[in-house]
Each structure stands twice: as C-alpha cells, then as structure tokens.
Amino acid sequence: MSDKMRFSPEAIEVNEGDVVRFVVHNDGKLMHEFVLGTQKSNDEHAKLMMRFPNMEHDEPHMAHVQAGGQGEILWRFNRAGDFHFACLIAGHYQAGMVGKIKVKPQ
Q1: 11, 30, 43, 54: which sits with the fewest CB atoms below 10 Å from its CB?
Q2: Cis bond leading into 9, ω under 30°?
Q3: 3 state SS of 41
C-alpha cells in the first residue's frame, strides 16, 4: 500500500479452495486498510465511509494498517469468481485504491 493510493500488485489469481495469507505493508505516511469483498460490497461500504469517516469497523476480511506498519489476513477462497480488495478509508477508494482477485474454479 502507498500514499499514491495504489496496491502492488493490483491484481492476483488464485484457485478455488486456496488459502492465502495476505501480508500487507503500508509504505505510506497515512493509515490504509485492506478489505476483501465483491465490488458491490466494497462500493456500498465506501459510500458509508464517506458519510461516516470515523466509523469504527473490524471484520475478519479487513486489516487496518498504520503508516509504516503491516497487517495480515488469512483467507480461504471457497468459490470461484471475481473479487476485489480495497482501501475504504474516505477518499482512498475514490482515488483508485482498489485491486482485483480472480478465483479460478477447481
């Protein structure tokens, strides 16, 4: 993650059934987050974050990462399809801080 509002890499492919440990490093000076979801769920959550920028939330599919820090999510992809990861902090998502995950069927 960076303050350029980008993830690197911006896209990954995994197989249905894979367990992935996401270790996300925040190389910026701002807090960022890594949230797994569908485009629809991330769009909806991003709208809420714009309305309530100080909203506290903590779910198994997200990691909040302080400047210079790192976070981890361990996730099993139990269905094929197209998914996304994003930073939903107000303004970050809108600036393009998103990525794609392609989950290939078994």
Answers
A1: 54
A2: yes
A3: helix
Which segments within the chain are labelled E, that is strand? 11-15, 19-25, 32-37, 62-65, 70-76, 81-86, 98-104
3 lies in some domain:
no
Read off the pLDDT of residues 13-42 as tens digits, 9 standing for 90 and up: 999 999 999 999 999 999 999 999 999 999
Owner of token pair 């485009």: 39
Structural domain harbouring 59: 11-104
Structural contact between residues 87 and 97, judged by C-beta atoms closer than 8 angstroms: yes
Q: Output the domain CATH number for residue 36.
A: 2.60.40.420
Instruction: For 57-66, give one letter per residue: b (16+ CB within 10 A) or e.
Output: eeeeebbbbe
* Dihedral, CA of residue 95, residue 62, residue 55 and residue 47, to nearest 10: 40
Q: What is the pTM of this model?
A: 0.90
